[in-house]
């Protein structure tokens, strides 16, 4: 925080802090404390986070680098085999790292492990940031900006949210697939038709689920039986849905959270045993379960939020 | 030769990062013509570099060629890396020069629009509200419509893992100018979103 002439309001976070926050880089304790209590700065941070999310979305949507033609220049020092192998490695790694593209390729400070325990996915660990706590259980109720979840031991936990809390809802949300929505569909089928097992709305740019077909684009011609996905190159893929289709909505409202749904909260401990949420996630049900491990650069809210977004995708 | 930097046991959504496979060590090995190190370097940086180049160049084929030229430059110049900057900002800076040269040949303005890109915006106002109500997909679309200098600075700040001083080094401008350009980029983004909103 300073009075840099570039910054709009010297009494609030300076632009450097806001950029660092959105970029997932560390900010000072004083700035973090200010951010936690300043609605103006939270709004500014939210705007920059959206811009940063847009950049990360574009990066994640970048096509995998195809194997290049044999080098054009004479006297090239790099054998073609190395290039071919390097690009293939990048290509194969890209799918696995696609979520991390949104998170950033990082050295580990925070480790969030999201595993499959029996039939339900559950957050099993958040380590590396002492100020963070997590709670997971089933959603009991939503009271205004607060959420109550019941843990496996039956203990109710009151979770408070703010405008910057990332909310991801999953469940029977077919009604939230509307014309024009950005969707990613995973299921079985062919190039032109797909039976949707999972639909992500406003979610990840791409995804790799072994044994499934995925298609990304804009929803159109939405009916109760399905919708058409129009991809960036204009290809139209018909997605059929059913009662078994799981829909996950990113950037959701609290009202879209499903009562009784498995819910994960990551946040900071608040007064009276409450949890001030950075993220409230109802994860999708993965075919065959999920196993996610996300390493973060630091413990900033932006970094954690990015991890939460990744968790929302599985 | 086994690649010691290759992820081991990685599951679908798992990635590992081995500190022993640090960038500097990779560059040292590349300088000794270690092809596996080059492959590992590409795996570590290729996607980020490609995304940044694609963001600025806007064409996939061109971006692929630029990344290929960038990695060639890394192969040839690894021995000259002096450690005065992070490897990430070093390779991004190489990619930026390659992009600039390619686009200059095509007579496209990338650097020349920097002056306009740094002009201050109109500040908070109705345009800010456009960003407040925008969905991610709308923002993504609007970013594509920004001038290259704005796409570039946003990509460097949010997509490349660079700090503001590193962004300043890559762009060869002061940190304060980076901030000005970022602020101008966001104002331009707001304006595009606002216009799109009015046209709906």
H/E element string of chain B? Answer: EHHHHHHHHHH
- Name of the CATH architecture of the largest domain in chain B: Orthogonal Bundle
Structural class of chain B: mainly alpha
* Beta-strand segment tally of chain A: 15
- Overall geometry of chain B comes to elongated
Through-space gap between termini of chain A = 36 Å
The largest sheet of chain A is: 12 strands, mixed
**For this structure, what is the CATH class of the largest domain in chain A?**
Mainly Beta
Q: What is the averaged pLDDT score of chain A?
A: 70
Helix and strand sequence of chain A = HHHHEEEEEEEEEEEEEEEH
CATH superfamily of the largest domain in chain A: Copper binding periplasmic protein CusF
Name given to the CATH architecture of the largest domain in chain A = Beta Barrel
In the predicted model, the low-confidence regions of chain A spanning at least 5 consecutive residues are 2-10, 66-125, 288-293
The proportion of residues in beta strands of chain B is under 5%
Looking at the structure, the CATH topology of the largest domain in chain A is OB fold (Dihydrolipoamide Acetyltransferase, E2P)
Task: Please explain how this structure is put together.
The complex is a heterodimer of chains A (314) and B (200). Chain A is built from 5 helices and 15 strands. Chain A is of the alpha+beta class and 314 residues long. Chain A has 3 domains: 15-61, no CATH class; 110-171 and 250-312, Copper binding periplasmic protein CusF (OB fold (Dihydrolipoamide Acetyltransferase, E2P), Beta Barrel); 174-242, no CATH class. In chain A, helix 2 (29-37) crosses helix 3 (39-61), helix 3 (39-61) packs antiparallel against helix 4 and helix 4 (80-103) crosses helix 5 (301-312). The two termini of chain A are 36 Å apart. Chain B is mainly α and 200 residues long. Chain B folds into 2 domains: 19-105, Orthogonal Bundle (Rna Polymerase Sigma Factor, Chain: A); 114-199, Orthogonal Bundle (Arc Repressor Mutant, subunit A). Chain B contains 10 helices and 1 strand. Chain B has helices at 23-31, 35-57, 60-77, 87-105, 114-117, 126-132, 136-144, 148-159, 164-171, 175-199, and one strand at 13-14. Chain B is elongated. Chain B starts with 12 loop residues before the first strand and ends with a helix. In chain B, 48% of the residues are buried. Chains A and B meet through helix 1, helix 3, helix 4 and strand 15 of A and strand 1, helix 2, helix 3, helix 6 and helix 7 of B. Strand 15 (292-296) of chain A pairs parallel with strand 1 (13-14) of chain B.
């Amino acid at each position: 925080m300073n009075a840099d002439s570039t910054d709009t309001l010297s009494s609030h976070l300076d632009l450097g802090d806001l950029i660092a926050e959105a970029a997932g880089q560390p900010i000072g304790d004083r700035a973090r404390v200010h951010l936690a209590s300043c609605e103006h700065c939270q709004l500014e941070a939210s705007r920059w986070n959206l811009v940063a999310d847009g950049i990360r979305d574009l990066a994640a949507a970048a096509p995998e680098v195809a194997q290049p033609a044999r080098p054009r220049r004479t006297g090239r020092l790099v054998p073609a085999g190395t290039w071919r192998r390097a690009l293939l490695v990048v290509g194969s790694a890209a799918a696995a790292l696609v979520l991390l593209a949104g998170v950033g390729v990082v050295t580990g400070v925070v480790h969030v492990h999201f595993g499959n325990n029996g039939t339900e996915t559950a957050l099993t660990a958040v380590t590396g940031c002492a100020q963070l706590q997590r709670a997971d259980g089933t959603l009991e109720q939503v009271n205004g900006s607060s959420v109550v979840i019941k843990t496996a031991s039956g203990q109710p936990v009151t979770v408070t949210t703010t405008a910057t809390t990332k909310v991801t809802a999953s469940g029977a949300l077919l009604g939230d697939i509307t014309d024009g929505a950005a969707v990613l569909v995973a299921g079985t089928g062919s190039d032109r038709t797909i039976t949707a097992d999972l639909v992500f709305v406003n979610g990840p740019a791409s995804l790799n689920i072994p044994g499934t077909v995925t298609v990304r684009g804009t929803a159109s011609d939405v009916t109760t039986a399905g919708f058409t996905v129009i991809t960036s190159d204009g290809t139209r893929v018909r997605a059929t849905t059913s009662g078994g289709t799981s829909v996950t909505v990113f950037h959701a409202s609290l009202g879209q959270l499903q009562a009784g749904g498995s819910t994960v909260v990551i946040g900071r401990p608040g007064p009276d045993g409450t949890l001030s949420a950075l993220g409230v996630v109802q994860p999708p049900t993965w075919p065959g379960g999920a196993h996610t491990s996300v390493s973060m650069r630091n413990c900033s809210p932006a970094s954690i939020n990015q991890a939460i977004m990744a968790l929302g995708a599985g | 030769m086994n690649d010691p930097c290759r992820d081991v046991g990685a599951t679908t959504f798992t990635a590992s990062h081995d500190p022993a496979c640090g960038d500097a060590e990779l560059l040292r090995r590349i300088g000794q013509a270690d092809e596996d190190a080059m492959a590992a370097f590409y795996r570590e940086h290729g996607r980020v570099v490609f995304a940044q180049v694609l963001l600025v160049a806007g064409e996939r084929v061109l971006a692929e060629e630029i990344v290929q030229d960038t990695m060639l430059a890394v192969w040839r110049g690894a021995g000259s890396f002096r450690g005065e900057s992070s490897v990430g900002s070093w390779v991004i800076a190489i990619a930026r020069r390659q992009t600039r040269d390619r686009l200059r040949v095509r007579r496209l303005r990338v650097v020349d629009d920097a002056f306009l890109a740094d002009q201050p915006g109109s500040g908070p106002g109705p345009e800010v509200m456009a960003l407040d109500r925008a969905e991610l997909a709308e923002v993504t679309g609007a970013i594509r419509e920004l001038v290259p200098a704005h796409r570039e600075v946003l990509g460097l700040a949010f997509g490349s893992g660079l700090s503001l001083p590193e962004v300043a080094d890559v762009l060869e401008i002061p940190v304060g100018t980076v901030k000005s350009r970022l602020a101008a980029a966001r104002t331009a983004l707001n304006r595009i979103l606002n216009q799109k909103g009015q046209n709906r």
